[in-house]
Amino acid sequence: MACLNSDGTLSPSGRALVAAVSSPVTPEEVAGVTGLALFRVRAGLRELAAAGLVVVDGDTYRAA
């Protein structure tokens, strides 16, 4: 599940994750909102954080 397409745009799952972190939330909360498996949410959030689209603050994530 890539959150970023090869051209740098967000994939559908990437858009769902970014929308879910509009305020600080945990990966578990994101999984509950999006319906995605927790391991996919964690991997996606790491990918989005590496791209600078999501900010990690302790155990929570929020949109950059």
Describe this structure in words.
By secondary structure, this protein is of the alpha+beta class. It has a single domain (12-63), classed as Arc Repressor Mutant, subunit A (Orthogonal Bundle), CATH 1.10.10. Helix content is 47%, strand content 12%. Strands 1-2 form a two-stranded antiparallel sheet. Helix 1 (12-20) crosses helix 3 (38-50) and helix 2 (27-34) packs across helix 3 (38-50). The termini are far apart.
CATH class: Mainly Alpha
The averaged pLDDT comes out at: 93
> Number of folding domains?
1
Question: So, the CATH homologous superfamily?
Answer: Winged helix-like DNA-binding domain superfamily/Winged helix DNA-binding domain
Side-by-side strand order of the widest sheet:
1-2
CATH architecture designation: Orthogonal Bundle
Estimate the strand proportion. Answer: 5-15%
Counted by DSSP, the helix tally is: 3
Briefly note the structural class of the backbone.
alpha+beta
* Rounded Rg: 10 Å
What is the count of β-strands?
2
Described by the principal axes of the CA atoms, the overall outline is globular
CATH fold assignment: Arc Repressor Mutant, subunit A
Distance between the termini: 21 Å
Specify the biggest β-sheet.
Answer: 2 strands, antiparallel
Order of helices and strands: HHHEE
Short summary of the structure?
This protein has helices spanning 12-20, 27-34, 38-50, and strands at residues 54-57, 60-63. With 64 residues, the protein is α+β, with helices and mostly antiparallel strands. The mean pLDDT is 93.
